[in-house]
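User: Predict the structure for this protein chain, please.
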Amino acid sequence: MLKKHLDEVNAILEKLIALTQEDIENIKVAKHDTVAPSVEEKNKLISEFTTAKKQLDASLVELNNSSTKGLSELLDEEDKQKLDLLKKNLQTLHTTNKEYAKFVLIVKDFYDGLVNKMFNLNDGTNNAYGDKKTTPESIFKINV
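Assistant: Here is the predicted structure, written as C-alpha cells:
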C-alpha cells in the first residue's frame, strides 16, 4: 500500500513539474492561449496531490505505529528509493516554480510598464489613449 501511495505522489509531482516547464517554454514564445488550461490542470493536480499526500502520511503513520522499530528499519530499499525520489521531485518542483515565477514577474512588469505609458500613469509618457475617462481596467484585465 505504501508503494502505491509513493508512486501516486511521485507521478503527480512529475506531471506538475512537466506542466510548469511547459509553461515556462510557452511564456518564452508568448503562447498565451495555453495559460487557462494549464492553470486548470495544475489546480486539479494540486488537489490530487493533497489527497494522495494525506493517504501517504496515513500509511507512514500506520506503519510506524505498528512496530516498536524505527521507520527506517521498517522500510525496504525500494520504499527508501521512492521516498528519495519524492524529496528530489519536491525540490525540482520548488526550483521550477521559482523559475516560472521569475518569468511571470517579467511579463507582469512589461504589461505594467505598457499600461503606465499608455495612460500616463506613474509619470509614464507617450499617452496613446488621451481620453482621461478611459481606465486601464476598462480596456483589459491581467490575470497573473
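Helices lie at 2-28, 35-65, 71-74, 77-119, 136-139.
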